[in-house]
Design brief:
The protein has about 240 residues and is α+β, with helices and mostly antiparallel strands. It contains 6 helices and 12 strands. The strands form 2 sheets. Strands 4-3-6-1-2-5 form a 6-stranded antiparallel sheet. The structure holds flavin-adenine dinucleotide.
C-alpha cells in the first residue's frame, strides 16, 4: 500500500452521500462519485482537501485506505473557534451536495513492515490512527493502539476499537489527568515504530517522549498550545 502512484492533483467532483454521528461535536462524512466510479487510491495516513461551498478549503484524514475505493470517509470535529470550516460542515453541508475535493495525499505514511507499531490518537486525531490500525490488523501485524479523550462522550468508534487486542483507552475525566505518553513510550519494545496524531500539547509530549528516537517525519507547524490536530511519527533506534 505504500507504492501508490502519485496523485494527478486534478480536483474531484464528489457527492456527500451520508452524515453520521460519531461522538460529541464529531460527525462522519462519506463522499462518493455521483456516477459510482472508483476513486483515486489512498493509504493509511492520507488526507483529502475539501473545497467547501463557502470558499474555504480544509484537510481531513481518511478513515479507509484502498486501491479503488468507492468512497472517502472523514471524521470532522467541530472547532469551537471555527472560522467557517468545521462549523460550516456541521451546520450547512447536507447529503446530496456535490463539492470539489483534492485527491488524497499522504504526508503521514505507515511502515507496514515494522515489527511493532505504536499508534497514539488524541481526540479527533484518532481518524488517521484508526485507518493505520485497520491496515495493520488486516496484515496481522503487531501493534499497540492508544486512544485518549477528555471525556467518554468524546470517544468515537468504541465498538470497533474494542476488537483490538492491545487497546489502551485513556479518558482524562476518569483517570484524573492526561495520558502519560512518556510511560507509554517507555513500555514499548525496541525497534517499535511510533505514530501520533492529536492536539498540540499531546504532540509536544509525544515529541519529548520520543526525542531519542529517529524522527521519520514531522510536519508540526502550529503553536504547541494550539488544539488543532497535528501528527508526527518516530522510529525508536535505541
Ligand atoms: C493533514 C491534516 C489532516 C486533518 N485531519 C482532520 C480530521 O481528520 N478531522 C478534523 O476534524 N480535522 C482535521 N484537520 C484539521 C482541519 O483541516 C481543520 O483545520 C479543522 O476542521 C478546523 O477548521 P475550522 O475552519 O473549523 O477552524 P479554523 O477557523 O481553521 O480554526 C481552528 C483553530 O485555529 C484558531 N484560529 C482561528 N483563527 C486564527 C487566526 N487568525 N490565527 C491563528 N489561529 C487562529 C482557532 O482558535 C481554532 O482553534 C486536519 C488538518 C490537516 C492539516
Amino acid at each position: 500500500m505504500n507504492d501508490l502512484p502519485p496523485s494527478t492533483g486534478a480536483l474531484l467532483e464528489l457527492r456527500l452521500e451520508s452524515i453520521q454521528f460519531l461522538a460529541r461535536d464529531t460527525l462522519l462524512y462519506a463522499f462518493a462519485s455521483p456516477a459510482g466510479a472508483a476513486l483515486p487510491p489512498c493509504e493509511p495516513g492520507s488526507h483529502i482537501g475539501l473545497h467547501l461551498p463557502n470558499g474555504l478549503v480544509r484537510q481531513y484524514s481518511l478513515l479507509e485506505g484502498g486501491r479503488e475505493p468507492r468512497r472517502y470517509q472523514v471524521g470532522v470535529k467541530r472547532d469551537p473557534k471555527s472560522r467557517g470550516g468545521s462549523s460550516f460542515m456541521h451546520e450547512q453541508l447536507r447529503p446530496g451536495v456535490v463539492i470539489q475535493v483534492e485527491p488524497p495525499r499522504n504526508n503521514f505514511p505507515l511502515n507496514e513492515e515494522a515489527e511493532h507499531s505504536v499508534l497514539v490518537g488524541g481526540g479527533i486525531g484518532i481518524t488517521p490512527i484508526l485507518c493505520m490500525a485497520r491496515r495493520l490488523k488486516a496484515l496481522g501485524r503487531s501493534m499497540t493502539l492508544v486512544y485518549s479523550c477528555r471525556d467518554r462522550v468524546d470517544v468515537a468508534f468504541l465498538e470497533e476499537l474494542r476488537s483490538y487486542e492491545n487497546l489502551h483507552l485513556h479518558i482524562d475525566a476518569e483517570a484524573g489527568g492526561v495520558l502519560d505518553i512518556a510511560e507509554v513510550v517507555k513500555a514499548q519494545p525496541a525497534n517499535a515504530h511510533f505514530y501520533c496524531c492529536g492536539p498540540g500539547p499531546m504532540l509536544a509530549a509525544f515529541e519529548a517522549a520520543t526525542a531519542t528516537c529517529r524522527r521519520r517525519r514531522s510536519t508540526s507547524s502550529t503553536s504547541p498550545r494550539s488544539r488543532k490536530p497535528r501528527w508526527t511519527a518516530a522510529t525508536r533506534s535505541n
